Amino acid sequence: MTTYRELLARTKGEIAEIDARDAQAIDGAVWVDIRETDEWQEGHLPGAIHVPRGNLESRIETAVPDKTRPVVLYCAAGNRSAFGAKTLGELGYGQVYSLAGGFTDWKRNGLEIVLPRTLTPEKRTRYSRHILIPEIGEEGQLKLLDSRILLIGAGGLGSPASLYLAAAGVGRLGIIDADIVDETNLQRQIAHSLDTLGTPKVDSAKRAINALNPDVDVVTYRERLTSENIDRILADGWDLILDGADNFPTRYLVNDASVWHNIPVVHGSIYRFEGQVTVFKPHEGPCYRCLFPEPPPPELAPSCAEGGVLGVLPGIVGSLQTNEALKLAAGIGEPLVGRLLLFDALATEFNEVRIERRADCPVCGDRPTITEYVDYVEFCAR
Ligand SMILES: [Zn+2]
User: Fold this and answer.
1) The whole model's pTM is what?
2) Which of 22, 93, 145, 154 is the most buried (most CB within 10 A)?
């Protein structure tokens, strides 16, 4: 019968123990923390990856695919890592070391440690369905909580976008809208309700967001976006713009500003039964003016009055925009850059059209001809 002490002593005789100074001198080593999650969260070595002892065998080949690379394992005191080192040797890793004295000695010797950012237990519960997805996880959720997204409009597209972005835990939401909630909005603008009729849309949306997720910092701009205020609003610091504008003067303004401020725009538009979504990422794909360099002349311009729209259509298009925004914020997936997604609600059909950046684009092209904001408001047909 072997006791734990005897097993530990024997194992330590079979593996290579290393002290902190020698371990730091190994070129290209990967440092693996095999402690439990709660221990990792109280601090770990700089640059280390975390593979708990219980998952070491099953996860190490994904975490460290190159078995010739030196591996330094550590735990709290150097005992669990000794057993772990033996296992890695059996799995074919050629240069495995167990850090003598582990994290405890490292810290006691005053060497640098990292305190990881983590979610509070409340947030871990609220966002558990995100955290369960490997592509998002706790790290992705922290990115969402750090992200700052500006919504142009709190109407049809802005309603689902603001609610889903808030529910997803986007840290700061800016909302620009000068309008007041009226009865005709309630057919589709689900951020508003009978309770908020007659109040500014930005306040109504903020109320709905706060009721859903009080963690979200909502910044309201009760004004119409113009060439006069756009730089001031963008100076508040936004990672991403979700454009739910219902008119092309605003669309051009947002486009030009986004190129000059280098902020990606998730674009959406709707009309009756048709919707469009794309992502304009400055200099990586086309911008709105690559598609439509100038607005149509006044005699061909559409009316600036609201057109009809199937109530659920902004829900679908605004949700697709939110999908793009969340992907961009979390840094996952393939955004709709250079792809225009078309949705036909009557046929229930999606189509995708490739769109290219144009070298002769007046704003993002090689020799821009538009370098100042243009207010197109007067071009609307009445
Ligand atoms: Zn362009």
Assistant:
1) 0.75
2) 154
